[in-house]
Request: fold
Amino acid sequence: MKKKSQDTFYKNLIDNLFEGVYFVDRDRRITYWNNSAESISGFSAEQVIGRICAENVLNHVNEEGINLCQNGCPLANTIKDGKHRKEDVYLRHARGYRVPVVVHTSPILDDSGNIIGAVETFTDNKELFITRKRVQSLTQELEFDKLTGVGSRRSTNLRIRSALSELQSAPGETGLIFIDIDHFKKINDTFGHEIGDEVLTSVAQTMRRSLRSTDFLGRWGGEEFITLIYETDAFQLKIIAEKLCSLVAASSYSVNGTQISTTISCGATLFSSFDTPKSVLERADRLLYQSKSSGRNLITFG
Reply:
C-alpha cells in the first residue's frame, strides 16, 4: 500500500471511530479532530484545528469544578512525561453545557522516540455518570433520614457498632442519648401528620444545631432520635443532654397562627467495654422510659 493510500486509510479509520479523537502538538495546538469528537463536543474541525486546546475550547473540569486545562491537564502531563493517562472529566460542549467523558491520553513520538505531541480519545460517559448519581442518591437515602435530614436508622446502627469497636483505642468515652418527643401523638392527632412532620423536622434541626460538629444525631424511628457524643464523660454528657432538653423546650413552631411547643425526654448512658449494640440500646431505652414515666421533659442517666 502506497504511503498516500495508507494515510487516507488510517484517516478514514480514525474519522469513523466511535471515540472522539484529536491530536495536539507540543504546544497543545490541535492538529487533527475526528467526526466523533465533533458529535460529542459540538465543535467542528474547522472551529478547533489550529487552536490551542486550553484556550476556551473543551475546558475540561473535574467533579470539583477545577479547570484541568490550567491545572492538571492530562494532555500536558502526557506531553511532559510520556505516560498514558485515563481521567473522568467534564468537557464544555459548544452550546455551553458540561458533558461527562472518560479521556485517554497517549504521547505521539517521532522516529527518534522524541515526544512531538499527544493524542486524546474521549467517549461520552453519560451512562456511568447517571449510574454514579443513582448510587450517590441511594447512598444518601441510606445514610440520611428523608424527612428530617439527620442520620438514618441504618447509619445510626453503623455508628454505634463503630464506636463500640473503637472503644479500646479511641481517646475519651462515648455517650449515647436516646430521645423521644413528648406527646407527639397528640400533635399529630390535633394538627394532622403534615404539621406533625414539620414539628418533627424542626425539633431534629434544633437538636442537630446544638450539638458539636463531631457528634452525631440520627432518627431511630417515629419520634425517637439517638445522638452519639464522642470523647466525653459523665459530666459533659449531662450538660449536653440538658442543653438539648432546654433548647427544644424553649422553641415553638408557628402553624397557621398557632404556636406549637413540645419537649423531649432522654435516657443517657456511657458505653462500657462490655457493651454490645443491643445492650447499650436496651439500657438507654430503659432510662428513657424512666424519664417518660416520671413526668417527661426529663433526663435519666445510668
User: Anything to note?
Assistant: Residues 3-130 form a domain with the Beta-Lactamase fold (CATH 3.30.450.20). Residues 126-143 form the longest helix (18 residues). The radius of gyration is 30 Å. The CA atoms of residues 166 and 174 lie 10 Å apart.
